[in-house]
UniProtKB/TrEMBL annotation:
InterPro entries the record matches: aa-tRNA-synth_Ia (IPR002300), Leu-tRNA-ligase (IPR002302), M/V/L/I-tRNA-synth_anticd-bd (IPR013155), Rossmann-like_a/b/a_fold (IPR014729), tRNAsynth_Ia_anticodon-bd (IPR009080)
All copies of domain Methionyl/Valyl/Leucyl/Isoleucyl-tRNA synthetase anticodon-binding, residue ranges: 139-251
Domain called Aminoacyl-tRNA synthetase class Ia: residue spans: 24-87
Species of the source: Gracilibacillus boraciitolerans JCM 21714
Family: Belongs to the class-I aminoacyl-tRNA synthetase family.
Keywords: Aminoacyl-tRNA synthetase, ATP-binding, Cytoplasm, Ligase, Nucleotide-binding, Protein biosynthesis
Signal sequence residues: none
GO cellular component terms, A-Z: cytosol
Protein name: leucine--tRNA ligase
Enzyme Commission code(s) on record: 6.1.1.4
Length: 288
């Protein structure tokens, strides 16, 4: 009892507040008074989740014919798709209408994750390497671990899943993906898609279950943004964009902007009257 009580968080619908939630506290306080349980309260935190409405934005009801049968969804789309979609619908405490299109989107995302890691022959993709890091993915990977970790702890599953989608998009663009990044991502996805991630974990060469693997850690130093995107204007109109060191001087920023081919072409044959540089933001070239 002392090890398990009080419960960290009680999640239940607001419609239960007067009935079993009230009785749960009543009975717990009675048991505490007679010395059976060691805590005054059974729960440390109460969280009321929202309700999934029918596609017509009304409460699901057999009489209205808008009930979604989860068994049918599991049969057609898979259990992981259902879990992922429900967590991605919106804030956990909001009441949101069911969307078949949204469900299809959740399945497409899981399919993209699988294709990113596994070939048609059920082998690991060649772009997944044993390298410890990849410059083009390092920041977004550590950012993903941080965002998902904190959002899941705060029950903000939808924003955590959104960040995982960002990582998958960037991973598709990368020439290679470190295996440890892939394993970390699979761990992040496992709470909402446990079946597909267990399969991926096994294909990645692990014999033990993913359920006992340690949660991935992020390095705060890898989240520092060393470069910023600035706009290059000619006569106040944006003509190009440039990634540059955030600490670049005015002179260096101006030089980099003037070296761009698109800018060279547009100012060719023109007299440059002035170049306005706002470090970290823009370069505006004023011509005749």
């Amino acid at each position: 009892m002392k090890e398990w009580l009080p419960i960290d968080v009680y999640i239940g619908g607001a419609e239960h507040a007067v009935l079993h939630l009230l009785y749960a506290r009543f009975w717990h306080k009675f048991l505490y008074d007679i010395g059976v349980v060691p805590t005054k309260e059974p729960f440390q935190k109460l969280y009321n989740q929202g309700m999934i409405l029918g596609e017509n934005n009304e409460k699901m009801s057999k009489s209205k014919g808008n009930v979604v049968n989860p068994d049918e969804i599991v049969e057609s789309h898979g259990a992981d798709t259902l879990r992922l979609y429900e967590m991605f619908m919106g804030p956990l405490d909001a009441s949101i209408a069911w969307s078949t299109n949204g469900l299809d989107g959740a399945r497409r995302f899981l399919d993209r994750v699988w294709r990113l890691i596994v070939t048609d022959n059920n082998d690991i993709e060649e772009k997944i390497t044993q390298n410890d890091r990849a410059d083009d993915l390092e920041k977004v990977y550590h950012e993903t671990v941080k965002v998902v970790t904190h959002n899941f702890e705060d029950l903000r599953f939808n924003t955590g899943i959104s960040q995982m989608m960002v990582f998958v998009n960037e991973a598709y663009k990368a020439k290679e993906i470190p295996k440890n990044y892939v394993e970390g991502f699979v761990k992040l996805l496992s709470p909402v898609a446990p079946h597909v991630t267990e399969e991926l974990w096994k294909l990645l060469g692990h014999e033990e279950t993913l359920a006992f693997a340690p949660w991935p850690q992020y390095d705060e130093s890898k989240l520092v943004q060393n470069e910023v995107e600035i706009v290059i204007q000619i006569m106040g109109k944006v003509r190009a964009k440039l990634m540059i060191d955030k600490n670049a001087s005015k002179e260096e920023t101006e030089q980099k902007a003037m070296e761009l081919e698109t800018i060279k072409e547009r100012i060719e044959g023109k007299t440059i009257r002035k170049i306005i540089v706002v470090p970290g933001k823009l370069v505006n070239i004023v011509t005749n």
